[in-house]
Amino acid sequence: MGFLEVSYPDASTGGINVSAEGGSSTLVWALVIVIIILISVILIRDKGIRSKIKSLFKFIGKKFKASRLESKIEKLQKRIKELVTETGRVVWKSGYLKNEGAKIYLLINESDKIKKDLKKKIDEINNKLKENEKIYNELIKEKKSSIKDLESRRKPLDEEFKESSEKLSGIKKDQKDNDKNIEKLKKDIKKNRENLEKLKKDAFLDDEEREFRRKKAEEELSVSIPELSKREKDVEVIKADILKITEKNDRLKIEIEKFNTDIKGIKSEMEKAEKENDNVVKEFVKEKGKLAASMSVESGKLETNFFLLGDLADKLRPDDISLKKYFKEIDEKRETVKNLKKEKEMLE
């Protein structure tokens, strides 16, 4: 009996394995969904559980509605407070209920005066800031103009120094080349002179060859000796030119450096002015911040006292046409709040 042969997929056939794994995963999820559906059906068919689910949804619905009602109530109450405050402001400007709200009037007038004084001080600081900025900008403009003028006057010197430096660099190169040529000429002259001495002593040369070599050496000497003399004279000329240009460059450097020092000094003054300006502005802004904070406190006091005066007016209801529209809206909003609260209570 032979064994049953089982073939396994080769590692290279990865696509087959991936497909099998994908099929298993899909099957598992399908089973999970079926189980969830079955559980849901069983739960829904159970009257007790169905009743609890309905109760839960009803409870959630009530809570959601109550939350919406509470939000509306809060907005309305906020608006009522704003209306009462606006009413108090109108009452104060009109001068109503001065006797009934004498103490409140005193507090409002005091805060209003403090607030006006603070605003005046803030305006003064703003004016000082503007004036300080104007002075600073004019100073910087003047300093920049001075730097531009100095740079403009320095420019021809910079260009002259650059041109002179390039010329000096060229002359120094010529000097180096000339020194090499002099060294070569000296070696050639020495060699030709030595050759002439050797020719006199060489007994193996025939007269014709001796004469040929002698003439050649003497001809080379007749060219190289004058050339050496000329180049040695050029050395002095080149040295003189180098000295002249170097002295000129030294003078230009001094003049350019003077301009640079002046420019640097002005830039230093600008930096100092900038720091001083920053410190001044910082102090002004700090003081302005303190005043603004105090002003905010007084604004808060005014709002509180306007509300108190408005609340007094709401209670006393003075017969004035300018206040009736406020009272009307306040009453409407309060009635709406009352109804919403009742509706909310019914949900509890």
What can be said about this structure in brief?
The protein is mostly helical. It has a domain at 97-317: Orthogonal Bundle (Helix Hairpins).
Write out key terms for the chains shown.
348 residues; 5 helices; mainly alpha; Helix Hairpins; disordered N terminus
Describe the 3D structure.
The protein has a domain at 97-317: Helix Hairpins, CATH 1.10.287. It has helices at residues 14-45, 47-94, 102-201, 207-316, 321-347. It is an all-alpha fold and 348 residues long. The longest helix is centred in the last third of the chain and has 110 residues, at 207-316. The chain is built from five helices and no strands.
CATH class of the domain at 97-317: Mainly Alpha
Number of strands: 0
Q: Please, how many helices? A: 5
Q: If you compute it from the alpha carbons, what radius of gyration comes out, rounded to the nearest whole angstrom?
A: 54 Å
Overall body shape = elongated
Oligomer state equals single chain
CATH architecture of the domain at 97-317: Orthogonal Bundle
**N→C terminal distance:** 84 Å
Low-pLDDT stretches: 1-21
- Main sheet attributes: strand count, strand direction, barrel closure: none
H-E order: HHHHH
Structural class based on helices, strands and sheet pairing: mainly alpha
